[in-house]
Predict the structure.
Amino acid sequence: MNRDSNRKDAIALSQGAKQRESAVQRDLSRDQHDPRPSRENVVSELIRELTRRERLVLMLRYTEELTVAEIAAVLEIAATEVERMLESITERVRRRVQPTYGRAVAGMA
């Protein structure tokens, strides 16, 4: 009985693996036919368009996890300037990505 149970479990696992593989293949096929640019390409392009200082602020904020006040101290600028830079970057990214990947949101132009 234990042997039958193990065999049934192995068959179920095999069928589950086949279903997952099939789903992955469908996703890959859909991605290949998707006319939209890949998200990685969009992000890379957006990063290239940022100034050196903007890239530095993003790195300090999201990689080093510094606060706005800490970033301001490191760069020797006002905290309000750091906040404005982060808001500006966020808005530019949102405007670029939303038409392609986002849902329509009332009030966004």
Observations:
- The domain at 37-109 is CATH 1.10.10.10 (Arc Repressor Mutant, subunit A).
- The radius of gyration is 23 Å.
- The chain has two domains: 1-35, 37-109.
